[in-house]
Amino acid sequence: MGRRSPVHGQCMILIKRYPNRKYYDTEARRYISLEAISQIIRQGGEVRVVDHASGEDLTAKILMQIIYEQEKKQRDFMPLATLAEIIRSGGERLNPMRRSLALSRDFLQAFEQEARRRIQLLISQGEVLEGEGMRLLEKLLAFGDLASVDRRPQAEEVIERILAARQTPSRAEFEQLQNRLDQLSARLDAWLIKKSADQQSP
How many alpha carbons fall within 13 Å on the CB side of residue 118? Predict the structure, then answer.
């Protein structure tokens, strides 16, 4: 029998993500927020997140998103012991996180290329002036305040749809998250070594 969750008093909690990006706790039989999932983890609970339609395991991706959101708040949210348990129980879930991060970086590169292509097309067709197009491109690549940019409706619709679908932070934020994961891994290694030494000492 699996380890019981201190949150619901049961085994690992299965959470389903629906197309509308809502999360459904199958044990509590109610929708919960990403913050609520984070709270379960902080309290030592175990969760498994799957896509409702395909059954794809999204746990690593959701964990990465939770870490990213907590990093924006600039505070530690996961005790080292809990982090160690997540890694053990999930087959070293930091590695899937890193793979997800790499895939997101690939998307950002493709996004930048597509944004440049579309802006150049608008300029070449005389739809926008070159200076206006370059300012628009700079705003798009900086992932700034999209609503305040004076730009062509076609570009706005494409970019907003992509960002809404991917919920992708900026490249600088990805780099910050990667560095944070490295720091967490180093702290975890040090904690495990210390714990092993304490257990072996008379």
Answer: 19
